[in-house]
Structures are given as C-alpha cells and as structure tokens.
Amino acid sequence: MEQPNFSYIDQLSRGDDVFKQKLLDIIKIEFPEEKAIYLKNIESRKFKEAAENVHKLKHKISILGLEKSYVVATNFENNLIESSDLGREEFEDVLEVMTNFLSKL
What we know:
Helix content is 78%, strand content 0%. The chain has one domain. By secondary structure, the protein is an all-alpha fold. It has 5 helices and no strands. Helix 1 (7-13) crosses helix 2 (17-43) and helix 3 (47-63) packs antiparallel against helix 4 (67-81). It comes from Algibacter mikhailovii. Keywords: Kinase, Transferase.
C-alpha cells in the first residue's frame, strides 16, 4: 500500500520548517476527529453524511502525498453518494495507514 510522504507539504512550506510543523500539527488534530465522525456516520449508514466526511478527508489524503489513495477516496465518495458502501474497506485501509503515520510524528 502507498505510504504517506511530505512531498506536497515540502512544496507548500518552501523550506519553512515552522510552517511545515504548523500544517502537520493541524492535520494531527483534525484527522482523528474527522475520522471518528466518518466512522460514526458510516456505521449508522448515513451515506450522504459519510460522503461529506470522505470529501473532507480527501484533502488530508492529498496533503500527505497519497495520490492513489485520493482516487480510492473519490471513488468511495461517489459510491456513498449513490447509497453504496462499495470501496469502504479499501478506504478504511487508507485511514489506517494515515493513522499509523501520524501517530509516529
């Protein structure tokens, strides 16, 4: 599975380590909250709300350089809009990879 990286964050920060750290701190705070809300909505089969959650999470997926995972998230979001949870397992695998990565920062 694809692994998170700092390539996009490094482009954004342009060598500004303070900015890079602030961005990472924001992700470390927001990601667990957004993930928890997503899990609550998907467990409740609230597909529209879960699609909105996935849409928000896609931004963090992108920031962490997960290009293939972004496609997985987009496909899953589209399925949720159609009231299907097809792709859930693959998307949640992405969330787990991100959780593990962020926990080591």
